[in-house]
Amino acid sequence: MTADSTLLEARDLVRHYRVSKGFLRGTMLVRALDGVSFDLAQGRTLAVVGESGCGKSTLARQVTMIETPTAGALLLDGQDVAHADRALRGRLRPQVQMVFQNPFASLNPRRTVGALLEEPLEIHRRGTRGERRERALAIMHKVGLRREHYGRYPHMFSGGQRQRIAVARALMLDPRLVVADEPTSALDVSIQAQVLNLLLDLQQELGIAYLFIAHNLQVVRHIADAVLVMYLGKAVEQGPKDAIFARPLHPYTQALFASTPSLGRARRAAAATAPSEPPSPLDTISGCAFRTRCPRAIARCAIEVPVPATIGSITVACHRAGE
Amino acid sequence: MSAAGSAHGIRSAVALAGATAHPDALLELVDYPGRVRARRMAFAGRDLVSCPADERRAIAGRDIAMIFQDPLASLDPCYTVGYQLDEALRLHGNERERGSASARRDRALELLRHVEIADPLARLRAFPHQLSGGMAQRVMIAMAIAGRPQLLIADEPTTALDVTVQAQVLALLMRLRQELRMAVLLITHDLAVVAETADRVVVMYAGQVMETGPVPSLFDAPRHPYTRALLDALPEHNFGRARLRTIPGVVPGAFDRPSGCLLSPRCEFAVERCVSERPELTGDTARAVRCHFPL
Predict the structure, then answer these.
(1) pLDDT given for residue B147 in this prediction
(2) Which domain, by its residues, includes B294?
(3) In the structure, how many helices (H) and strands (E) does chain B have?
(4) Which pLDDT score, from 0 to 100, does residue B61 have?
(5) Cβ separation A189–B171 shorter than 8 A
């Protein structure tokens, strides 16, 4: 693993969508990603956590170059992905690959494992047919699939095995960054452990960085080096995993922690969790977006948008974090 | 599913945990060519296997209600929340509700309030696509409790929800269990959810009960290697460890079940006897384990 050279850097990343309010009612702007900044070093794991609608998947779509950010900079190895021309994007895209949440939906049921794995190489015109086959078999071995699986179809595999296939496909192009969108949340406990171990082993061996999108904080605690907590398109808190798990500063992070079920806790303390549900990204909230659910909100929170401030090793956007 | 039977009293929450647990057998939701066969499957003293179909139909949906994993897939997208609640009351409500539309409407509002939905009057006119996942699950719960059930089966009720909303829905279920004096059968693969909500747990594997017991003690001292391996695989139990402990291999398919103990190919303690002879569930109703060599 190479130490701490930055692989991915996001600066004030913004992505807005125009959505229709209904027939003849015009459109409105959804700020799905509203000024998010972070760094991710080579061979490290950054976990992105937050509720649905917080912009996690939008972030993944920008990083994987499926979409172009509205504003801000996204640097992969110092090269700006956001404003790259076609040729540069073509060179950068293979370096970022993705593993999706549901391996029952992300694998084409009509193609064999071999065909699924070789497709990325075909798209990027790499190697001869024989070389592609060799490469597929080598990667299959790496993720714990056997040679005889090459000609089989996805429906012949269990969820855990399918996720291995999905991971193998993400590795075919030798990526430096893998974006994993809830890769274990569709799996059973014992299978989840197998897939997490696989991801950690591959990181050790190949020095891949992970952008790991998750809502299971126990999993995050196990796999991540750093954590980015998002709420309605903004980064509310980020920092090294140990610091955040030892003492979360943002009330939202605290609420997420309190909501996470734990074996150690006998009965749920309902009062500590965040009340109500996350507001729709379509709503506009003045000041701090979390204030409508925040137990510690004061008058200032409704007026002034909190600016991210550094407290120790943590960056947090809350008026009351320093108290 | 083979042989998962146990009696549990009113107002307790029992959790079924583990791979491939099937609650559908209880509610006659098994599709052809599947069939429910049991020595006895009694609900409130009545055997659901041997009793006539129409008697069973009267129980299913009213006395035994069920909510599912994906609430938005369980609601009909073409009808409003109000219509679907009304339908549940027309079928499963009390005599007054079955006879009067205005009584049903009042009860529907009361049910929505009961499951803590804000602005219930407006929600009656809403279509499922206008609801969030957490709200939709609350509507499902409202429909389920419309018939004043004695047993609520909740099949992975919070798996599709965010942790914050999961916490709220679980708290709601636990509150309703107390208030309505109904038993809850919670099916989940999340052991932490079990630890926080259930009184008793039944650990299942490949269609068999592996272990059953009261919640704190079963988690503190599991007697079946499968239960222990499940607990050991949790990230929560692997702090400071680079790799998680796992259970090697996968759950056997329906047609390649081992002849001995179902877990034997994956069990670290398996010996000759485990491969040749299938263990029986031994113990009493409070605590039982299916293993030749319990821990």
Answers:
(1) 92
(2) 216-295
(3) 12, 10
(4) 85
(5) no
Length of chain B measured in residues = 295
Q: Is B164 on the interface with A (CB under 8 A)?
A: yes
Query: What are the tens digits of pLDDT across the range B164-212?
Result: 889 899 999 999 999 999 999 998 888 888 988 888 999 998 888 899 9
Nearest to B16 by CA among B221, B211, B266, B160: B211
Peptide bond into B33 cis (omega under 30): yes
The sheet carrying A71-76 orders its strands as A27-41, A6-20, A71-76, A79-80
In whole angstroms, give the CA distance from residue B15 to residue B156.
10
Determine what percent of chain B falls in helix, strand and coil, rounding each to the nearest 5. 40, 15, 45
Q: At residue A108, does pLDDT exceed 90?
A: yes
Say yes or no to pLDDT of A313 above 70: yes
Strands B46-47 and B208-214: unpaired
Q: A239 in a domain, yes or no?
A: yes
The complex scores an ipTM of 0.79
Residue A48: beta bridge partners? A213, A228
Contacts of A158 in chain B (CB under 8 A): 250-251
Q: What does the alpha-carbon distance between residue B76 and residue A46 come to, in Å, rounded to a whole number?
A: 39
Query: φ and ψ at A263, to 5 degrees?
Result: -65, -30
Side by side, which strands form the sheet with A226-231? A96-99, A177-181, A209-213, A45-49, A226-231, A234-240, A314-316, A309-311
Q: What is the CATH classification number for the domain harbouring A45?
A: 3.40.50.300
Q: A20 falls in which pLDDT band (50, 70, 90)?
A: confident
Q: How far is CA B236 from the centre of its chain?
A: 24
**Cα(B244)–Cα(B236) distance, integer angstroms:** 10
Contact by Cβ (8 Å): A127, A151 = no
Structure tokens given for B281: 């569930």
Q: Among partner residues B132, B170, B235, which is closest to A219 by beta-carbon distance?
A: B235
Our count of domains for chain B comes to: 1
Residue B9, pLDDT score: 37
pLDDT of residue B206: 85
Judged against a pLDDT cut of 80, whether residue A274 lies above it is answered with: no
Whether residue A292 lies within 8 A of chain B, CB to CB, comes out as no
Q: Is A321 domain-assigned?
A: no
If you ran DSSP here, which 8-state letter would residue B99 be given?
H
Q: Total domain count for chain A?
A: 1
> Comparing B219 with B40, which gets the higher pLDDT?
B219
User: How far does CA A258 lie from the centroid of its chain?
Assistant: 22
Partners of A38 in the β-ladder:
A10
pLDDT of residue A196: 92
- The pLDDT assigned to B59 comes to 85
- Residue A198: both structure tokens together: 């696989």
Interface of A with B in 183-242 (CB under 8 A): 188-194, 196-197, 200-201, 215-219, 221-223
Domain range for A14 is 6-316
pTM score:
0.84
Average pLDDT, chain A: 89
Gap between the Cα atoms of A273 and B194, Å rounded: 18
Give residue B217's pLDDT: 87
* Closest partner CB to B170 (pick from A193, A264, A268): A268
Is the residue at B267 inside a domain?
yes
